[in-house]
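Every protein is a chain of amino acids, and every chain bends into a shape of its own. The fold becomes a row of whole numbers, each drawn from a learned catalogue of backbone shapes. The protein below has been through that process, and both of its lines are reproduced in full.
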Amino acid sequence: MGGENMNTAEKIYLDADAVVELLGVSKGFAYKIIRELNANLMTSGKLVAYLGDIEQQATAMFLRLVKQLAEKENVTEELKETDQMLWVQKMNNIRNRATEIVNAELIYTV
């Protein structure tokens, strides 16, 4: 039981269902609590700083993934010069996959 409380305390994001479970309140009241907490975070500047940090992490991860995937799949400047349409198709595919990875591993898990 102690470990369960520790994991909850370390968690940064709680949805309404988690608040209902933790506090034993109605879902409507849970949403009110969340709105108040978000307002407090916003006025204290902590939310903006936190979201800025997440954005930096997401951008760095996205750029790293695009570079790695392009190298792995041999999508080069040479390909861009010889077959622009193929290069655009491959890069769009790579960017879409990188976006999905960033969303799954960073954005939706926070």
Q: What stands out?
A: The helical segments are 2-10, 16-23, 27-44, 46-72, 77-82, 84-107. Residues 1-11 have pLDDT under 50 and may be disordered. The two ends are 23 Å apart (CA to CA). Residues 48-110 form one domain.
